[in-house]
Amino acid sequence: MRKTSSKMWAAAAGAASIALLATACSSGDGGSSDDESSASSDEKITLTVATFNDFGYSDELFAEYTKDHPNVTVKQTKAAKSEDARTNLTTKLAAGGEGLADIEAIEIDWLPELRQAPDEFVDLADPAVEGRWSDAVVGNATLDDGKLLGYGTDTGPEAICYRQDLFEAAGLPSDPDAVAAEVGTWDDYFALGTKFVNASDSAWFDSGVATYQGMINQVKAAYENPDDGTATDLADNAEIQKLYDKVTSPEVQALSAKLDQWTGDWDAAFQSNGFATMLCPSWMTGPIEERAGGVTGWNIANAFPGGGGNWGGSYLTVPASGKHTAEAKELAAWLTSPEIQTKAFIKTGNFPSQLEAQKSDEVQSATAPFFNDAPKGAIFTDRIAAIDVIPFKGPNYFSVHQTVQDGIKRVEYENVDPATSWQTVLSDFSALGL
Amino acid sequence: MLTPTRDAAQDAATAPPRQSRRVGFNQRLGRWDVKFSPYLYISPFFILFLITGLFPIVFTAYVSMHSWNLLFGQGEFVGLKNYTDVFAQPHFWTSLRNTFSIFVLSSVPQVITAIVLAAFLDQNLRSKTFWRMGVLLPYVVAPVAVGMIFGRLFADKSGLINAGLEAIGLPAVQWHVDVLASHIAIASMVNFRWTGYNTLIFLAAMQAVPRELYEAAIIDGANRMRQFFSVTIPQIRATIIFVVITATIGGLQIFDEPRVYDATGLGGASKQWLTTTLYLYDVGWGNQKNLGRAAAVAWLLFLIIVVIGFLNFAATRRIATGGSGVPSRRARRAAERAAANRRAS
Fold first, then answer.
1. Would strands A45-52 and A103-107 be described as parallel, antiparallel, or unpaired?
2. Domain assignment of residue A385, yes or no
3. Domain check: are A27 and A133 in the same one?
4. By CA distance, what is B49's nearest residue in A?
């Protein structure tokens, strides 16, 4: 009896492991039987939408779509972090698009690298969506030959978020309009900061790297030649060196809380009056509120040093590997329509990139209770209008940007002399071999 | 259709040579069973290994000989250029330094603490299971969660550890700036996670040590210390070597902890805690998307681990032949069981 059962166990184990093998080998083509054939208009199909964080798309919203398109069921897969979604997208693109969703959400910053693989995506250009977005939003996702890679969902116009109470305590003008009037240029912004730190224990801004990011978002061609995408030699890049020198100069460093964004120290500084102002893309209001719970003084000034600037924003793309690209394109157009994105804005605060949505009453009348009821809808609409430069960010943007960021971090956190750190930036740059 | 079958059956019955051949076939089947069945039974592991182990290693070598972008795929054949490129990158050498430093700072205290803890758990304690499960608890916590918790503990300005240091009059440590400090912080995450796990493996080995040896030692007048060094340690030698080898492989591949140690996850502004796997990830999946170069790093790391594995192996042999006795079968079997568990987990 005992012998039999042990034999049976062995057989079962063998069978199980072979079954495991079989499933491991076949998982690639399983589970998508309804995607097999090319779609006719009334055939039942399922479209998948891959997003991250919170795009504000709910199951009720998708049910609404199914009501109008009875043959289409929509499913959403959500990644917790945009980095996860990015890794998923790039690795699957590298594998020929196998396993990608019918609609993949992307961040504006991934576009430079995705532009290099235009064949992986369906051209979304369509007369029906013309004029839906500003030229800047469309331009970022448009290739030289006019192919449109993605439909914009939301955008990141930058304003200044500041601590009204700390301004008052330091004897500075604290009314949003008064503050806005004093931070028109970067020099004004830093000068006001010097006044502030002389009268307060708090720092002026949170992070030199973030401040540099705000500046770089206003540079037309920061690291690369817009004509061919080749990297500019950093050693000869006077404009970048000027910005670097500014951020790492003793005067500006004296204003910095020297924090690394998204770290524990940064989080903690929101509660301990660590700094009084922040560059504030529309989506940043959420993270501030999250970290500064219980702090009452935050407000938004309708201004940004040096004009306007955009930091972040997202798009929906349709990978060419999908089985139902035409239907996916239709769904993407619907999801990025002004009405839907206004709903998403109400739900999540992601500022819609659709011109019509920005003008809508819901958006225009939206206020931010946490920021002393600042009229955020109106403010960020103004901030979009103020954007006058569409920066060129090519395929090498991130690599080069990272080396300069590291250079600023060395000055901020490690007390390295700015000139020495710049030399390391240059050697890091040449190690990239661009 | 019936007739031919019957004919065949009759043929078979009337013709003796055929019958004998059938017996011969049965015998041959039996011989095959004895000869090949064992291989068939263990084949699932090897087939799996071929698909998930050997093929990726070989394919990585193939990738490392080409210029290969993550997005556009295979480029032209470049020979060993990716390797020479990697050697020319100062960050690669920094990453090797960091990897070894973090490896030493984590493995050595980890193994020593685990042995001592196991020795305590091997005593007659009340509520044994509680204590034994207790040491394993940190292992259950996801590494990223450990990273986030320790990231806050070791925060430069607002961290609990610096607050504690300042409370007792010591200067705050710049955990995210100073090279050695960052290594210690990361090593402490690794130790937090793996010490209890290794403790249980040592405990399993210690419980397999024959109790008569201790009785004899007591009769000879050996105190607890002496018993530990002269009986326990020599008896669990095989397990120690097993743990050292797995700790080496794990230590050289350390990724999660340095990845979540700061917000960027690229080893700090001066690459203070950039480990080799982190470097590999950045080259292949970061901004450069240079899969060819990343594959070259992977192969270099593989070779380094192989070299160190051989050093470990040599050390094993020396200890095994140099010691007074080979580890008992029970101890070895316990270690093997533990090894199987570790592989299975």
1. parallel
2. no
3. yes
4. A21
User: What is the torsional sign of CA B8, B10, B16, B21?
Assistant: positive
Select the residue from B55, B178, B255, B289 to test the A interface by mutation, using most A Cβ atoms within 10 A: B289
Query: Is the pTM for the entire model greater than 0.80?
Result: no
pLDDT at A31: 36
Same domain, A167 and A177: yes
- Give the domain range for residue A244: 156-310+390-432
Report the b/e string of A1-10 with b at 16+ CB within 10 A.
eeeeeeeeee
- Verify that A243 and A359 share a domain, yes or no: no
Angle between helices A325-335 and A338-348 (to 10 degrees): 60
Q: What is the rounded CA–CA span in Å between residue A148 and residue A122?
A: 8
Domain total in chain A: 2
Q: From CA A371, how far away is CA A351, in angstroms rounded?
A: 16
| Torsion over CA: A293, A295, A296, A300 (sign) | negative
What residues contact B12, with CB distance under 8 A and at least 6 apart? B18, B19, B22
Q: Which helix (H) or strand (E) holds A231?
A: none
At B57-107, the pLDDT tens digits run 999 999 999 998 887 778 889 989 999 999 988 899 999 999 999 999 998
Which of helix, strand or coil describes residue A280? strand
- Rg (C-alpha) for chain A, rounded Å, is 25
* Residue A218: band (very low, low, confident or very high) from pLDDT cuts 50, 70, 90: very high
If you ran DSSP here, which 8-state letter would residue A105 be given?
Answer: E
Interchain CB distance below 8 Å, A413 and B177: yes
Contact between A71 and A34 (Cβ < 8 Å): no
Q: Any residues with CB less than 8 A from the CB of B343 and at least 6 apart, and which?
A: none
Q: Which tokens hold the place of A73? A: 């069921």
pLDDT digit string (tens) for A111-167? 888 888 888 899 999 988 888 998 878 888 888 888 999 999 999 899 999 999 999
List of chain B residues whose C-beta atoms are within 8 Å of the C-beta of residue A399: 287-288
Provide, as residue numbers in chain B, all residues whose Cβ is less than 8 Å from the Cβ of A264: 151-152, 155, 158-159
Put simply, the answer to whether B71 touches A432 (Cβ < 8 Å) is: no
CB burial string A260-280: b at 16+ within 10 A, e below: bbebbbbbbbbeebbbbbbbb
Tell me if chain A has a CB within 8 Å of the CB of B57: no
Q: Is residue A1 part of a domain?
A: no
Task: Give yes or no: residues A112 and A26 share one domain.
Answer: yes
pLDDT in tens, A2-39: 444 555 555 555 555 444 444 444 433 333 334 433 44
Residues A149, A92 within the same domain: yes
B282 touches chain A (CB under 8 A): no
Query: What CATH number should be reported for the domain holding residue A238?
Result: 3.40.190.10
Chain B contact for A80 (CB, 8 A cutoff)? no
Judge whether A377 lies within some domain: no
Q: Do A137 and A260 reside in the same domain of the chain?
A: no
On whether residue A384 sits in a domain, the answer given is: no
A351: its two tokens: 């500022």
B194-231 core/surface letters (b: 16 or more CB in 10 A; e: else): bbbbbbbbbbbbbebbeeebbeebeeeebeeeebbeeb
Least Cα distance to B272 among B178, B148, B156 occurs for B178
In this complex, how many residue pairs, one in chain A and one in chain B, have their CB atoms less than 8 Å apart?
A: 98
Residues A88 and A114 grouped into a single domain: yes
| Nearest-10 crossing angle of helices B90-121, A418-431 | 100
pLDDT for residue A183 is more than 50: yes
A417 with A401, same domain: the answer is yes
